[in-house]
Design goal:
Two copies of one chain form a homodimer. Chain A is α+β, with helices and mostly antiparallel strands and about 650 residues long. Helix content of chain A is about 35%, strand content about 20%. Chain A has 18 helices and 23 strands. In chain A, a hairpin with a 2-residue loop joins β10 (about 490-495) and β11 (about 500). Chain A is globular and about 75 Å long. The interface of A and B includes residues 544 and 598 of A.
């Protein structure tokens, strides 16, 4: 496409933001070190050494543990794109070298199978994750190349991609990746290398889904007969508990878990394992930038709408059940048992980003913003050392983030998301610059070959004022498009202090003019407290409301409230006030309001009583941003509050 | 005890009631025939014939299927106590004879093990239900004896009880019944025979629970090594799925499932499998009529309060989860996933009856009434041919009663409960007659050796007027105690038309006088529609209300309402009206009122919106008694309604 929207390279986006910079610094200085220590201590790196004969002992971790090293490398590479960090660079070099040396002559690379019998390789696509690991290797290789200029890891990735293409590409054995990931990585590999066959391989993987009979179903029924090594048997046994996620109620293969129930272009709703689903549709959206396929576009847009309008938590989290870590049915969004895996929110961020790049529509960034500031960011503690996998919207106090996880997909996934935040803030097409997220930052780019610098200053998400200063070497005509968030009830815009009346189009308020050096554009959104209801078909939220201010969804945590949080009945929404507390949770805006609470003594230990039999007392309710909860003492929390 | 409360024999209670008589006629004429056909067709009777070599094929049904025949016999016997039914009598004789002939020389009787190897008998008490079946045999034997005067089945039961007593009684091998039932049956067997050792055996089974180490835990860990026949292996395998109900989170034996976590007298809350729990505590309450044990009484009262105040649905159902068919934690009462097994409600009815017999307190009958009219009666369709096992308080339309069940404990349990309804209506102590339930009926009894007849006429539960006429041969002094239901907001009483001011004591309004033939006592309860809230800790019912009128809990069913029932937001409770519709559901009082419903078109397919963004329309809500739902087309239903 000629007018295609493109993002800016990370090196062109210098984030200087009161909200995000502390998060990114913690990610860079604490989280990446912490995660390196864990992939080292938990045997992930040793597995490579075991293949090389440089370490003893047996394979450690789940079969897809290699992906942790790859995602960590990807995150570290993004950091190195903008920061000089010699000690991090040394660790990256060490891990890259280890991976490079481990790769087999024929390009194969998956330590679990390299430590098992050779004939077990490529026998089980439904659940053995070899291609999933390959996808993360490719993403890491590209990130490493882009930030360091080196080709070592990219070459490893290409050799493995070639190995896969030779065996399973067009005209070869028709397998399907059981856990999508490689599809999106192959599109990026095409972009990074220009090699068309990577695009074709991705297309072929996407197109093979949902056929009848499904190659995945054949794999699935065959897998139990395979496995010649003890290791392999053990792994099959360990995942047997998950066997029925592939089965429908009658016990026959059900493709939904792996989005294999219908060809993608015929799928009507997001189904199955939430991470798998978002990774697949991210790949489809990425692919559609390279090929014209209106039918496939209609499908992926329909599927995105299915997620956003029927199956997404108010936090942007998706996946309503831990059984199969899966999406369930329309409007089925229980709060306490919400799975809402951190990786799935991240997958949704990636999918929405690609949908925006296809269409230039702000609605995709609205959802990206919701999933980023809430459902993703909640995945890591403020100190950067504890991580969540599932993210309930209510708990009685049993939940807490963990230092590490046996299945540790989420921690490095979040690390790479934070380290690459810059990619989501701006975008460009022929002569427009999109300001998608309000994040204090300076960018350098060119518009029609003219150098352009923009400097964004904002106290977002706490305040709704955004100032952008334009720096130019010469007057230049172009357009700046500001996303008007879906939660914003109007906005005001000035250029050099003079009001501009601009109706938002596709969610953007645009200023097109011949800019001069030093021009200033200011944008103001009123920062109101929104009291949200869920659609009447969301039975879990009946009679309850969620508080949102700006892009942030709020929750009540027991530590801030005098009564059990489920006793709080929110009073008049007009009573709600917001105030910033710099000393709380590294600085958050707190929402407070009046609430009532039933007099427990008047219940006299009865279980049921006429509604008018019990009086109420006045109290107050204090809410904090959802992303910031579970950073003090362990306790109860809920997003959805009873409304009087 | 000298002043002990006693119930009247079924033959002394002639029920003639607009509400109950049609239910009992259906039970007698349709349900008993239907159930006989099923126990015949499904191999339950053939299993006995197989032991005798009179039928071929393999054992059919779950290992405890004999109990179905016993419960059916018990139900049929109750019917024969008041009705001449030659064809039913012939079937009873046939089944009794079959059972009698099947019993082993040594008294043993359990077809599953009689068809397996002899050494498998009495090897697995934790889950193999031999003693559970024995308990139901004993109950059937007593019922059969009382109604027919014959001793055939009672003798079979006694021989089996003796067999058990010799092996597992005081001083013998210290086993514990894995599924309680025999404990309560043995107390009744003591009452029926005067044989003290049956009481001692029951006491011994009750006292052995909750010891450390538990004999049941030892059985449990041993059972997997046992089993010499293929049949047995197969059964163990089939119940392996339920193995973890006996395990805590760390995988070690957890006595709670079978009320084996602490000695009964030390137990603080009702735990574990709901039917097991109610059967155990029914036995304890029955035992306490025979022995003085204040500590044990405190325990069983405490446990009953635990059930009623913390763990009981508004329908009287108990058991919040299908996992282990179990009680869970205080206030955990989810509606859609409510298990609330019919057998557990029946068990609660029996337990409350025994608690009343111990104490003379009406609160026990209040709960009995709730569990009988709602949680139990819902277990059978109006036509008497379809049965429920679990009883959710909300469904989206996937629920329906079944003609029969593989595990068919509930259908004959309900049949015997209906057939013996008369035992719950009245009771007597030295010179008082308790009118516990308001059911049109005539009774004949004696008070201080004087013949007394009472004739009760009422339109309960639809209307709150009760008239009792006293028939005497000579003026007699005694007391009539009318239960004032917990839901009644006051009452008025007259004797021969003159008002009597009587404060209720222990839940009873009493009239003590020298009655003369023809005296009439009239009682009136105002029949209001109660709008109930649940305790603030019942998170599943937050912001919702249940409607109750008299003893009946109501629900909304999709067939009666123009909008999806979960969209209904109840309006002003004052708008609710009740009207009787003789043509609906064999005659029910319907509750109607105003409701609002959000304008779906204004939602415009959004998932979240500010609360004030969507308008509402007025509509009406129609509610029917919970027991009567699912008798028309399949659809959605809920008990707890949103309140504006």
């Amino acid at each position: 496409m000629t007018d295609a929207i493109r993002t800016l390279p990370l090196s062109a986006v210098d984030i200087r933001d009161d909200f995000w910079t502390p998060r990114l610094e913690t990610n860079r200085l604490v989280t990446l070190e912490h995660q390196y220590d864990h992939i080292k201590a938990n045997g992930c790196l040793d597995n490579f050494r075991r293949v090389l004969g440089e370490a003893g002992g047996e394979f450690e971790g789940p079969m897809f543990v290699d992906a942790n090293a790859y995602k960590w490398l990807e995150a570290a590479s993004y950091v190195l794109a903008t920061e000089e960090m010699p000690s991090l660079r040394r660790k990256v070099d060490e891990v890259v070298s280890l991976i490079e040396r481990t790769q087999a002559e024929d390009g194969y690379l998956c330590t679990f199978f390299m430590l098992a019998d050779q004939e077990d390789r490529w026998t089980n696509f439904s659940r053995m994750h070899e291609l999933y690991c390959a996808g993360h290797l490719i993403e890491a290789g590209i990130a490493h190349h882009r930030s360091t200029g080196e080709t070592t890891l990219l070459d490893v990735a290409r050799q493995f991609a070639d190995h896969i293409d030779e065996r399973f590409g067009p005209g070869q054995r028709e397998i399907i990746p059981g856990h999508e990931e490689i599809e999106l990585a192959l599109v990026e590999l095409f972009r990074a290398t220009g090699e068309r066959r990577y695009l074709d391989l991705s297309t072929c993987f996407i197109d093979r889904r949902g056929r009848d009979p499904s190659p995945l179903a054949t794999e699935f029924s065959r897998e139990w007969e395979l496995g010649s090594t003890e290791d392999y048997d053990e792994v099959l046994q360990s995942i047997e508990a998950n066997r029925d996620v592939f089965l429908d109620e009658s016990g026959t293969y059900d493709g939904r878990f792996a989005q294999d129930h219908a060809p993608v272009r015929e799928q009507e709703s997001v189904e199955g394992h939430a991470v798998r689903a978002t990774y697949l549709y991210t790949a489809v959206a990425a692919l559609l930038r390279e090929i014209a396929d209106p039918e496939l576009f209609d499908a992926v847009e329909r599927l995105w709408e299915s997620m956003v309008r029927k199956r997404m938590y108010v936090t942007g989290g998706i996946g309503s059940t831990s059984e199969g870590e899966a999406l369930t049915t329309d409007y089925d969004l229980p709060n306490e048992t919400a799975y809402a895996e951190t990786c799935a929110a991240i997958g949704s961020v990636r999918w929405s980003q690609k949908m925006f790049e296809l269409t230039g529509e702000a609605k995709y960034i609205d959802v990206l913003e919701r999933a980023l500031y809430n459902g993703s960011l909640v995945g890591v503690s403020l100190d950067g050392t504890r991580f969540s996998y599932s993210n309930p919207l209510e708990t009685q106090g049993t939940y807490e983030r963990k230092e590490w996880l046996y299945v540790a997909c989420c921690p490095p996934n979040l690390a790479r998301t934070l380290a690459s935040l810059g990619q989501h803030v701006y975008a460009q097409d022929a002569d427009s610059i999109y300001v998608n997220l309000y994040v204090g930052s300076d960018i350098e780019t060119t518009v029609s070959d003219h150098p352009v610098r923009l400097s964004q200053r904002t106290e977002y998400p706490w305040q709704g004022d955004v100032d952008v200063e334009v720096s130019l070497q010469a007057p230049t005509e172009f357009e700046v498009k500001f996303r008007i968030p879906d939660w914003a009830d109007g906005y005001e815009m000035t250029v050099n202090g003079r009001s501009i009346a601009a109706d938002a189009v596709d969610g953007y308020a645009a200023v097109r003019r011949t800019f001069e050096d030093g021009d200033e554009i200011s944008l103001t959104f009123p920062m109101t407290i929104d009291v949200l209801a869920a659609h009447p078909d969301v039975r879990a939220d009946e009679g309850h409301v969620a508080l949102q201010r700006g892009p942030l969804v709020y929750c009540v945590e027991s530590v801030d409230n005098a009564v059990p949080v489920h006793h709080l009945i929110l009073g008049d929404p007009e009573s709600l006030t917001a105030s910033h507390d710099e000393s709380l949770l590294e600085g958050v805006t707190v929402i407070e309001g009046t609430a009532t609470v039933q007099r427990l003594d008047e219940w006299d230990d009865a279980l049921y009583r006429p509604i008018d039999a019990v009086g109420t007392d006045q109290t107050t309710v204090t809410a904090i941003p959802y992303y910031a909860w579970n950073n003090r003492e362990q306790g109860a929390m809920r997003v959805w509050l009873r409304l009087a």
